[in-house]
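Protocol step 6 of 9: fold each sequence in the batch and record its structure tokens directly after the sequence line. For illustration, a two-sequence batch is reproduced in full.

Sequence one:
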Amino acid sequence: MNTFRHPALRSTLSGRAILDASCRLSRCVRGPAQRRPAFSHSLTLILLLLTPIPNPAHSGTVRIPFRTVQSLIVIQGKVNGNAAIFLLDTGANRTIVSTEIYGNARFELQRMPHRQGPAGFTGYSLRRPADIGLAENVWTEQQVSVMDLDELKQMLHLDFDALLGQDFLRQFRSVRIEYQAHVIELQQ
């Protein structure tokens, strides 16, 4: 490994010192300075390979802004691409979408006889798939109940298009409501 022609240099230098001196004399760029970046690059590559790849469909936390009206949580969103106003209803078993915002289900519902039910809001509904958009996220083919919400709107004195219920919320590991920040966090 000793490549020096001069005997004095050959006798005083050994091992790594010879390699360093050899590089300096031949003006090469090798040596400890080059080994560190190579090690650093290798370490960076190993860390990147060990880091799990995030799944865009199920990654992180979704933050949805809301406002309150009459102590109710109101969320701007979309149903099948149509702008909609949702009420967050943690007591509702199902997500309910009005016939007007969903589209062509009203005719089918009007033919059904009206029924009286116990306390709470009841009525006829159709189960249909719908795309639910909240903030910048869209959940496709969500099963929703499509029903006439006019009576409930009159009872609450509030105009809205849908109730966001437990069936939607159960898809997430946790649901956190930050009242001061006016944000709902859905952790996937």
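Sequence two, same batch, same settings:
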Amino acid sequence: MDSERFSIVRGPIDPRCFENIAGAGEGALVTFLGIVRNTAHDGRAVVGLSYEAYETMACTEFKAIDAQARERFGDVRLWIAHAVGDLAVGEVAVAVAATAEHRAAAFEACRFAIDQLKERAPIWKKERYADGNAQWRANKTDE
């Protein structure tokens, strides 16, 4: 069911969220967890992130990414969850999983999904710095 596979979550994501999702015919499960790190790209100390999302549109994009992954990589299934709200360093902000019969398709689909999510989903990130300042940051597919 799509509502179970694509979601916006309040607060950090449980890193065990993908336990027992592979079906009997799926021999591969590839996961990606995006974790809040303590340093910004410019070297400033980060104490946390705040995320906002246009939730309905984000989940619609997640479903579209899933459909495109199936077209590109065959019989794969995606799970995508993204957190909103305040997150601390070390907490999981985004989780993507891909299942497939074989590992190559699962790896490719998982990478495709996180890159597409960063590029297309209406989700915004604010970095909160140790000096008390904060700044909205653009999503980048290479981060």
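Proceed to step 7 once all outputs are recorded. Observation for sequence two: Strands lie at 6-10, 28-35, 46-53, 76-88, 92-100, 123-129, 134-137.
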